Fold:
Amino acid sequence: MTQRFKVHLALGIVSLIYGATFTIAKIAMPLYIQPNAFILIRVFVASVCIFLFHRYYVKGKIQDKKDLLPLLVSALFGVAANMLLFFKGLAITTPINASVLMLNTPVFVLIFAGIMLKEKFTLAKVAGILIAAFGALFLIGGTRFTFDSSTALGDFYVTCNAIIYAFYLVYAKRLMVKYHPLTVTLYSFFFGFFMVLPFGLNQFMEIDFLHIPAVIWLCIAFITLGSTFLTYVLNAFALKNASSALVGTYIYLQPVFAAIIAILAGKDELSRQKIISMFIVFAGVYIAAYRKKAEGVGQRVGG
Structure:
């Protein structure tokens, strides 16, 4: 299995998990768990899992104390602000609105990467992102999402999250190259836990754990272990070995996987529009990730 294939596999799994997160999180939130309490649980459980995994398989340390400040910034943007804004927004707006607004992320990744990392704005990257964006919007359907006063605040939070997450994908790139990806993720979550603690503690104390149904516990397990621990580990691996733009572009696959999951679960029906839009998204991601063989196999994927 080549490194290139591993990167695309990791990003594909992340998109699949995130594609299901929009709906699964709404099942438990805010009826059983308030957004900030959910974030506190996410970060705590993921931190423990990452610590155990890191201790037995990596054992890396931050050698340069000057990198502690960048790690604090990564924790702020990649863990605390990112999660708090997304879940707060998702609790107010609809899953469809949230999925549409998150499509802004790759665009901002491309902008930040060009400014901070001097990544080139190649025709393939720009064309691929635009094609994938069109396919994702076509898949979601223009008549199925509405931005009005009832969801305005939630839409604003999700939009801010999209920008913040884009910044994190670019900012953390240098740390991922210098240290093991899991080491960076561990420190980010460690600092991030103390950042979200003041926001989620009161809501956490209000949770009625004794009367939470089994299906809600499954939702919590999926969000904490899948949407948090596994996705951050896989994203960290991808960021070390691929360009930030490629990692961001895979966000366009999230509504595709969300649609597939809904169809398999009998919640939606397969239509010509869905088939066409899925092919458009896959084509856009492929174009954005394409590299000529002449450029060398050993170079970064999609960069």
About this structure: The chain has one domain: 3-292.
